[in-house]
Design brief:
alpha/beta, 10-stranded mixed β-sheet, two-stranded antiparallel sheet, 12 helices, 12 strands, globular
Length: 347
């Protein structure tokens, strides 16, 4: 039996994870579950956003289903103990270097997109984001200059091994789709990006069947709005990927719709919706559970080799939407519970 670590986290995290758990239970496919606190919830209980027992469970589990972390209550806590450090700590401890973020407009949600319906309808891409390098993990700090000014610094860095392994994940992903890969960087300004481009080109020699293009990140942000249908697979670094994947989610209708996977070399993964903890709507039944339910489908496919069950979950989500179910972020009146019930009924 596969062991799934359930890490609900903060805000709406417990609500959406509970919804996904109901769907996984309904599949009755031999999964076992163990739950642990993480983020601000864990800090309140244990004085740390990623307590030793939670980290131990993460190492022991076959896959992790994660809700969300973040709470304004901890904005003034030292950075090492803020809720968001839990997700960074898990990525580092488990070697979760590859983030897969699919963005697809579901039929019937054209009006929910900020783009014209005919433009939004063409969205069907995967953003492959490197997760364990870049400015998020580079040296950082503050100092006072000789003239008495406060100064902050964050080091952007990648080595060629880190770039090569994420590039290979992207090329392999492209091989399962339309065999088109766009590498996004800022090579006209950043030396880190120039190395990124050089290494991606070198790796492309092993994938002659995949068409490789390059795009500067500012142009990529514009093209996601102008013509998102041109993209099949995008590969980029941690910072650029963080921004572009959130932008893609709104192009596709709602940040509440998009799942993600963070995987390591052994295909062990952490699966989470890309939306945040949304503390302003926590406990009100307004949270859209679909991104987390779709994240559980990604977990079934990528870490547990259960593609058939993943297909069933994704088909059930599509059926619920086709039937007209919409949570408030999609302009409807369904609650977290009624949307989950609609998916279960379709399943």
């Amino acid at each position: 039996m596969a062991l799934i670590a359930i890490l609900p986290g903060d805000g709406i995290g417990p609500e959406v994870v509970a919804a996904a758990r109901r769907v996984l239970d309904a599949l009755d496919c031999g999964l076992t579950f163990d739950e642990a606190p993480v983020g601000g919830t864990a800090y309140r209980l244990h004085g740390h956003p990623l307590p030793p027992a939670t980290l131990a469970l993460a190492h022991r589990a076959d896959a992790l289903l994660f809700g969300a972390v973040g709470d304004p209550e901890f904005d003034n806590v030292e950075r090492a103990h803020r809720p968001e450090q839990a997700i960074l700590g898990l990525r580092k401890a488990l070697g979760l270097f590859a983030n897969l973020r699919p963005a697809k407009l579901f039929a019937g949600l054209e009006d929910a997109s900020a783009l014209r319906p005919e433009v939004a309808a063409a969205i069907d891409m995967v953003i492959v984001r490197e997760l364990t390098g870049d400015v998020y993990f580079g040296d950082k700090g503050r100092r006072t200059t000789d003239t008495g000014l406060r100064e902050g610094h964050d080091l952007m860095r990648y080595d060629e091994r880190e770039i090569e392994r994420i590039a290979r994940v992207a090329f392999e992903t492209a091989r399962t789709r339309q065999r088109r890969l766009c590498s996004v960087d800022k090579a006209n300004v950043l030396e880190t990006s120039q190395l990124w481009r050089d290494v991606v080109i070198e790796v492309s020699a092993d994938y002659p069947d995949v068409a490789l293009t390059h795009m500067y990140v500012d142009n990529a942000a514009m093209q996601l709005v102008r013509n998102p249908g041109q993209f099949d697979v995008i590969v980029t670094g941690n910072l650029f990927g963080d921004i572009l994947s959130d932008q893609a989610s709104m192009c596709a209708g709602s940040i509440g719709m998009l799942p993600s996977a963070a995987i390591n070399q052994d295909r062990k993964g952490l699966y989470e919706p890309i939306h945040g903890s949304a503390p302003d709507i926590a406990g009100q039944g307004k949270a859209n559970p679909l991104a987390t339910i779709l994240s559980s489908a990604m977990m079934l496919r990528h870490s547990l080799d259960r593609a058939a069950e993943a297909d069933r979950v994704e088909a059930a989500v599509t059926a619920a939407l086709v039937a007209g179910h919409r949570t408030p972020d999609l302009g409807g009146a369904d609650t977290t519970d009624t949307m989950t019930q609609a998916v279960l009924a379709a399943l």
